[in-house]
Amino acid sequence: MKLIRTEDAVGSVLCHDLTQIIKGVTKDAVFRKGHVVQPEDIPVLLSIGKEHLYVWEADENMLHENDAARILCDICKNTMMDESPVKEGKIELAAAADGLFKVDGARLRLVNSFGQMMIATRHGNTPVKKGDKLCGTRIIPLVIEKEKMQRVRELCGDEPLLQLLPYKIKKAAVLATGSEVFHGRIKDTFTPVLEEKLAEFNVELVYKQVLDDKPEQIAAAIKTAIEEKGAEMVLCTGGMSVDPDDRTPLAIKNTGARIVSYGAPVLPGAMFLLSYYGEKQVPVMGLPGCVMYAKRTIFDLVLPRVLACDLVTADELAALGEGGLCLNCAVCTYPACGFGKGW
Hints:
Elements: E1 2-5, E2 18-22, E3 26-31, H1 41-47, E4 52-55, E5 62-64, H2 65-76, E6 81-83, E7 90-95, E8 99-103, H3 105-113, E9 117-121, E10 126-128, E11 133-139, E12 143-145, H4 146-156, E13 162-165, E14 171-177, H5 179-182, H6 190-199, E15 204-211, H7 215-227, E16 234-237, H8 248-254, E17 258-262, E18 273-277, E19 282-287, H9 290-293, H10 298-307, H11 314-319
Parallel strand pairs: 14-15, 14-16, 16-19
Antiparallel strand pairs: 1-4, 2-3, 5-12, 6-7, 7-11, 8-10, 8-13, 9-11, 17-18, 18-19
Helix pairs in contact: 2-4, 7-8
């Protein structure tokens, strides 16, 4: 750093905070370390007694923290994110729309392992609302080597480290199965729960049926929902346990759907089934009874991904074991909690 006259400091970078003290009025930094001096700043600097300033010397091999922060932001950002103004080497990103937030964890660790820079995000594979904060990026020192920032950019490649996927599925079908419901012995209380959950994502219920525990009827109804009613997702309720007369998993399999998993390491929701039907990969799910009465379950974890047409794998479901235990808190704060943060 070097000492220069304040009048000559326009365009220079301050090496430390400059504080103004007015008794009974203020004691705060007027300019922060890293501030680039502007012409209008000169009278203010002189008014606080600063006739000389310590500033950083220009170095063609170094980047100012704000310029380096721009690179970190570019590594992270995709088209559905809004960024904050750069300040003290820091830029934050927020959701520009509702959607599914995703993080490339391997590349995130790569950036954070370089040192002198950091990116902190919320958990990936979680639903977010427009305006929600997604991440914060920061350069730690005031200046950083250009070569280091260029190396990080090259290693991360052209694809953004973060994604915000819009929800694409807008039409769903619900097939309530079970002889007790079909014969009117009990009321179907499952479908209204699903209608409420789907409404949170502006999904329309275009087809619903109550069916007996007959695999051929259930399989036919799944195909009707997709091929004739235009359903982009099918939810089957009832018949998901291991009792001999629970036939929903068999019915889903008989449609020819590709079974991803029957069972998930999540409580509530162990007896969950996920499959994809046909060339269009239409999601067909078998929902366990807990979805009807528990506040949050495996269905809440998988639904945002399904609606964003983000295909879920068996390995990803297996990874939910860590964090897959809902604690049934007296006041539910999901998704602002640890439930389902394992994938």
